[in-house]
Design goal:
Shape: globular
Number of helices: 6
Order of helices and strands: HEEEEHEEHEHEHEH
Bound molecules: hypoxanthine
C-alpha cells in the first residue's frame, strides 16, 4: 500500500506543479457546488490518477480539484467512492491516504443523509459531532503499516471540537440554521426500512448515510483533523417516512448546498 500511495502522490505532484494542499475536501451527493467556489489551479479526472477507482454512481462526477478556498490551499474530491459500489474499504479510503501524503492536516467531509432525529426537517444542515460505524468492517483491518498510523487508533474526538464550535459561530453570525448530531454510516445501497431507521435512532444516531465513516477512520489513523457536515435529504422518522429516490436526495442536497458550502469555506478560513 505504501508504494501505491507514494506512486499516486508523486504522479499528482507532477501533474500539479508540486501544489501542496493543506486542507482536503470530500464532497458528497449533490454537494459538488462548493467546487465553483474554489479558484482552481489544477483539475485531474480520476481516470488520470493512478490507483484511483473510477466512480460509478450518477451524480458523482469524479475529479480532483486543486486551488484556493477560504484563504487556504485545498484539494477537493468531487465524487467519492462508496462501499456499495463494490470497492474494498482500502480503495474507498485510498484518497485520504494520498491527501495525508501530500501534506494535508485537516479534511472536510460532506454527505447526504436520512434524518432520524424527530426534530429534523428536510434540508437540515447537520454538523457531524460523532459517528457510529455500522459497516460490517473497518478500513484499518489488516496488517497495520506503522508509517501510516498506530495499530489502535484513539477515537475520542473524531470530529474536531474547535472546528465544530467555529462552524456554529459562523452559522449563527450569518443566520444559517444548523444542528449537530451523530451520523451512522452503513453500507446501503438500499435506503433503510422503517424498522432500520428506528434502530438507528434507538442506538443514538441523528442521521444515517452510506459514506464518510471509512474516510474519517482513516483520517484519524493518519492523525488528521476532521470537520464533517451532512444534509438531511429525507426523514426516517415514524409518520414522516416517504419513498426516497436518489434523484430527490440529489435535489434536496443541491438546494441546501450553498449554505453548506458557505459554512465549509468559512470554517476552512478559521483553520
Ligand atoms: N438513508 C441512507 N442514506 C441516505 C439517506 C437515507 O435515508 N438519504 C440520503 N442518503
Amino acid at each position: 500500500m505504501l508504494e501505491q500511495i507514494n506512486f499516486t502522490t508523486k504522479s499528482i505532484l507532477e501533474k500539479t506543479n508540486n501544489f501542496k494542499p493543506e486542507v482536503g475536501i470530500i464532497l458528497g451527493t449533490g454537494l459538488g457546488g462548493l467546487v465553483k467556489e474554489i479558484s482552481a489551479e489544477f483539475v485531474i479526472p480520476y481516470e488520470e490518477v493512478p490507483n484511483f477507482p473510477v466512480s460509478t454512481v450518477e451524480g458523482h462526477s469524479g475529479k480532483l480539484i486543486f486551488g484556493e478556498l477560504g484563504g487556504k490551499k485545498v484539494m477537493a474530491m468531487q465524487g467519492r467512492f462508496h462501499f456499495y459500489e463494490g470497492y474494498t474499504m482500502h480503495q474507498i479510503t485510498f484518497p485520504v491516504r494520498v491527501m495525508k501524503a501530500l501534506g494535508i492536516h485537516t479534511i472536510c467531509v460532506s454527505n447526504a443523509s436520512g434524518g432520524v432525529n424527530p426534530s429534523f426537517e428536510i434540508g437540515e444542515i447537520m454538523i457531524i459531532n460523532d459517528h457510529i460505524n455500522l459497516f460490517p468492517t473497518n478500513p484499518l483491518i489488516g496488517k497495520n503499516i506503522k508509517e501510516l498510523g498506530p495499530r489502535f487508533v484513539d477515537m475520542m474526538e473524531p470530529y474536531d471540537h474547535k472546528l465544530i464550535a467555529n462552524a456554529l459561530e459562523i452559522a449563527k453570525a450569518n443566520n444559517i440554521k444548523v444542528s449537530q448530531g451523530i451520523y451512522a454510516g452503513l453500507t446501503g445501497p438500499c435506503f433503510e426500512t422503517p424498522a432500520e431507521y428506528k434502530y438507528v435512532f434507538n442506538i443514538g444516531a441523528d442521521a444515517v448515510g452510506m459514506s464518510t465513516v471509512p474516510e474519517v477512520i482513516v483520517a484519524k489513523h493518519g492523525g488528521m483533523r476532521v470537520f464533517g457536515v451532512s444534509i438531511v435529504t429525507d426523514l426516517g422518522v415514524p409518520g414522516k417516512i416517504i419513498e426516497v429516490t436518489h434523484e430527490e436526495v440529489q435535489q434536496i442536497a443541491a438546494a441546501a448546498e450553498p449554505k453548506m458550502s458557505f459554512i465549509v469555506k468559512e470554517v476552512i478560513r478559521t483553520m
